[in-house]
Amino acid sequence: MNDPIERAQALVPVQYHQFDIKDEDAPAATALDQKHNGLVSVAVDAITVLTGIHTGDVGVTVTLHSTRPEPDSADWQEIVEISARSVSGELKVSGIMDDLDEELPVLSFLGPGDYRLRIHARGRDSAVDLAPDEVSEWYLVQSWPEPPGKTAVLRQSDAYGASVRDR
User: Fold this and answer.
1) 76 φψ region: left (φ > 0), alpha (ψ -120 to 50), beta (else)
2) pTM value?
3) Of 11, 22, 71, 117, which cross-links 57 as Cys (Cβ 3.0–4.6 Å)?
4) CATH of 6-165, one of 2.60.34.30, 2.40.10.350, 3.40.1190.20, 3.40.50.300
């Protein structure tokens, strides 16, 4: 078993159905496969995690691992793995218009280099396109050092993800 070397939770602000994972000094990832996976996309300067809610807060847990962990066994509806690169050593979860306080650890915890991120999601169907007052979506981001590899879709079962894939 590969227990996390660090684990933290925080509320992350969402605007326009997304929050980001980004490195302040450079793009955080290369282009994803052409077929959209419904959970994660790559823009010029960030990895974007797509949310069901339009605006509000989502619960995010980050776990850091020295080697590849097993996917979390909880009831996650969507799970996607992506490669990420940190030039600055400061790859982190962020709102698209708001920086987070230092509540969540830096994903590139060993400094600059290549990492693998496994992003889990649940609850994206509960308040689609809304701005709920209470948290209705949860995410888990697992990070570990690993050379770049292809995007891997491990689970796709929510309706919101299916609607994004159909676009």
Assistant:
1) beta
2) 0.93
3) 11
4) 2.60.34.30
